[in-house]
Amino acid sequence: MADYNLPEENRYSKDDEWIRLEDDRFVVGVTDYAQQQLGDVVFVELPDVGSRYEVGQAYGVIESVKAVSDLYSPISGEIVEVNGDLEEAPESVNEDCYGVGWLIKISPDDPSAGKALMDASAYLAYIDERSDD
Description:
- The chain is 20% helix and 33% strand.
- By secondary structure, the protein is of the alpha+beta class.
């Protein structure tokens, strides 16, 4: 099994995205597992600030040399910021998916919504289950 960086303070979705609470909003990005599976990211399409999304609703697209994948909102809420730097430097997702490679910031409809997502150990078990297929 490959090694994945899965910070304990983050929560993880089954769509391979992470969230981290900062102040009263959640920062969202793709996990280290996802960026490794995608390969070199070459394009990221993000939503407009002010857009609203429900859990599981597609809000953007991430494209790599190997695949094009939809991005799905891990929580319901309003987009309050997008990482505009990814337009010029989409490879930041590969270089630092939990730092400069973040995707969006969401003001959640329910501040406790993150608790419904997996912690790092549960997400790692979820990755293992899928790779056994």
